[in-house]
Amino acid sequence: MTDVRKSFIEAGQSQLFQNWDSLSCKDQEKLLSNLEQISSKRSPARLLEDCQNAIKLSETNSSKDAGAEIQPLPSTSYESLIGNSDKENEYFQVGLEAIGKGEVAVILMAGGQGTRLGSSQPKGCYDIGLPSKKSLFQIQAEKLIRLQDMIKDNRVEIPWYIMTSGPTRAATEAYFQERDYFGLNKGQITFFNQGTLPAFDLSGEHFLMKDPVSLSQSPDGNGGLYRAIKDNKLNEDFEKRGVKHVYMYCVDNVLSRMADPVFIGFAIKHGFELATKAVRKRDAHEAVGLIATKNSKPCVIEYSEISHELAKRRTKKVY
């Protein structure tokens, strides 16, 4: 345990031990144990370095950077199906065939609480005000059932992986159990937790304390999904089930087409390893991001990062 304390002090985090002498022996052990859990995966120095790099990347990753070259994606990388019913039907059949073979799974990112919605429950439990009073979870479960019913020649159960967090895991599982999994088979649903990361001050130079014996931690966001897939061995489960394609979405996207056969068929037909779906922008200043390239690399430019000049551009060469 002395090595744990030493590693944090050497990383410039002596503030974590400013109350050390006033702590009981039990609380001293608890503090060191909590710090050890944090540092067992990555050293304090590495965590700080990662945070600093993220801050630098954020500062330089704005489209307002005069030196950045923002251009549309290559024409071979995207397609619009608006007004193209033949292509839409073609992709639909390809996607539906993959679903019928059991090759498609769905991942739902549902780790958040409904705090901003005025609810203490997991966000997926929220009643969005429909006459039916159905929650987000119920709406999405019924979409999955409907899609399964579309497979006429084979009884298929689409695996549904639901990412929760520490504060929402128990409540989410209880919600599904109390409602008999909304008619789905319990065995096709897998709950798993997203990871957490320690919180830093705005400079990214110091860890923040939750209380005298533990660091403040927060869920690692949607970007932590891939680590969570690895840590929870979901990739091994994909292989065991024969899953080749995974459709991912966020719980508050109530309009999401679960395991959308058209979208999946599009990705399969073109051999894309990764694909994303977007709505067409209605006007220059609509608050939606852009999928484009920055310095010849694919990127997403948030609407808050788009300069006024860039937002108005309409030429074929540059957004």
From TrEMBL:
EC number in record: 2.7.7.23
EC top class named in words: transferase
Recorded GO MF terms: UDP-N-acetylglucosamine diphosphorylase activity
Biological process, per Gene Ontology: UDP-N-acetylglucosamine biosynthetic process
UniProt keyword terms in alphabetical order: Nucleotidyltransferase, Transferase
Catalysed reaction, written as an equation: N-acetyl-alpha-D-glucosamine 1-phosphate + UTP + H(+) = UDP-N-acetyl-alpha-D-glucosamine + diphosphate
Pathway(s) per entry: Nucleotide-sugar biosynthesis; UDP-N-acetyl-alpha-D-glucosamine biosynthesis; UDP-N-acetyl-alpha-D-glucosamine from N-acetyl-alpha-D-glucosamine 1-phosphate: step 1/1
Family per similarity comment: Belongs to the UDPGP type 1 family.
Name by which UniProt lists this protein: UDP-N-acetylglucosamine diphosphorylase
Upper lineage: Eukaryota, Fungi, Dikarya, Ascomycota, Saccharomycotina
